[in-house]
Specification:
Layout: E1 4-8, H1 13-24, E2 28-33, H2 36-46, E3 50-54, H3 65-69, E4 74-79, H4 91-113, E5 119-123, H5 149-152, H6 156-178, E6 183-189, E7 191-193, H7 211-214, E8 231-236, H8 237-249, E9 257-259, E10 263-265, H9 266-276, H10 300-306, H11 313-327
The structure holds NADP nicotinamide-adenine-dinucleotide phosphate.
Keywords: Oxidoreductase
InterPro entries: Epimerase_deHydtase (IPR001509), NAD(P)-bd_dom_sf (IPR036291), NAD(P)_dehydrat-like (IPR050425)
Protein name: NADPH-dependent methylglyoxal reductase Grp2p
Length: 329
């Protein structure tokens, strides 16, 4: 019989690719969503081997118990749901606490209501391996972000970084104190770019991490203006999903798996867009300046563990923008 995986936050950009790849591999998938309309939309796209459970609020005590009790066939749990935003009215209440409490609720529910689950994969982030809010610091499988709770509350970016860090620490503490019957692995993507799992999802505003690229489509050459500079490391969403599937099948043995492809900068994005979509007539910036070293190899252990042939920046950007333009014609 096919194995069944539970995916929390199944509506998410990354989660939809995880579900898609799980179904392609022959798994049945149960996803948690926040409303019936969201669940029905997913069901239409994913087909009959996908079903959903409504979990309105990650933070409600026992939020996942009922959903898990209804699915004794689930043997793997992938926890992706978490607030992905840097803009909130209340950083602690809207970003930090749902991430921490959601993770703890998931782990408690599995322990008490799904003893047959042996593997839990948590979508953490490369930011939990950085130094504070310094996005240019080097992340590796062995480093932990030391951001304090007080600092995390100060602004949206710090809150997101703190939320992921504290949630992962809460999971480590849960395993140490509760000694559950399941193994917990964490996957640490850097900035995730890539096409949506379904063309229909590319209509309108894209998910937050893709706006690093799609936001540049507003910079028309005719209007001139300054190019906002940022740089970092990216990974394609299809590789992030593949990393989750690898972690199901091959124990991570405590390796906090960093998933990344190569470097990006705003200028590199713009160069790729101008080369592949000249009809958009975007500003040129300074095409030979502010490029990044694409040979980033900071995560030897994770790279060896995953053995992925990572999708490069140009293909990722082109696939994302082609789909976006087509969907929004
Ligand atoms: P996304 O598209 O915004 O998906 C987030 C998911 O979490 C959605 O299903 C969302 O539900 C759910 N969610 C958010 N807040 C919630 C809450 N308070 N209660 C219940 N559900 C909630 O983001 P994504 O980019 O796919 O990110 C997925 C995971 O990957 C997150 O854990 C994120 O931290 C991690 N990650 C992302 C990146 C990146 O660059 N994208 C990089 C590293 C790690 P709705 O659809 O109903 O809002």
């Amino acid at each position: 019989m096919a194995a069944t995986a539970f995916v929390s936050g199944a509506t998410g950009f990354i989660a939809q690719h995880i579900v898609k790849q799980l179904l392609e591999k022959g798994y049945n998938v149960v996803g948690s969503v926040r409303s019936e309309s969201k669940g029905e939309k997913l069901k239409k796209n994913f087909g009959s081997n996908f079903s959903y459970e409504i979990v309105e609020d990650l933070e409600t005590e026992g939020a996942f118990d009922k959903a898990l009790k209804r699915h004794p066939e689930v043997t793997v749990f992938l926890h992706t749901a978490s607030p992905v935003t840097a803009q909130a009215e209340d950083n602690e209440k809207d970003i930090i606490l749902p991430a921490i409490n959601g993770t703890v609720n998931v782990l408690k529910a599995i322990k008490s209501s799904a003893p047959q689950v042996k593997k839990v994969i948590i979508t953490s982030s490369g930011v939990t391996q950085l130094d504070g809010v310094d996005l240019s610091s080097t992340a590796s499988e062995d480093t932990w972000n030391s951001i304090s709770y007080e600092r995390a509350k100060e602004d949206g970016i710090a809150a997101y970084i703190g939320s992921k860090t504290f949630a992962e620490k809460a999971a480590v503490e849960f395993v140490e104190t509760e000694k559950p019957n399941f193994a917990v692995s964490t996957i640490h993507p850097v900035l995730v770019i890539g096409p949506q799992a379904f063309d229909s999802e590319a209509k309108g505003q894209l998910n937050l991490s893709n706006t690093y690229v799609s936001g540049l489509l507003n910079l028309k050459a005719s209007e001139g203006g300054e190019l906002p500079q940022s740089d970092g490391i990216f990974v394609d969403v299809r590789d992030v999903a593949a990393a989750h599937l690898i972690a199901i099948e091959k124990p991570t043995n405590g390796l906090r798996v960093l998933v990344h492809s190569e470097g990006y900068s705003t200028q590199e994005f713009l160069n790729i867009l101008n080369k592949n979509f000249p009809e958009l007539n975007l500003i040129k910036g300074s095409p030979t300046e502010n490029l990044v070293d694409n040979k980033y190899v900071g995560d030897v252990k994770s790279r060896e563990y995953l053995g992925l042939n990572y999708i490069g920046l140009e293909r990722s950007v082109v696939d994302t923008i082609k789909q976006f333009l087509e969907a929004n014609k």
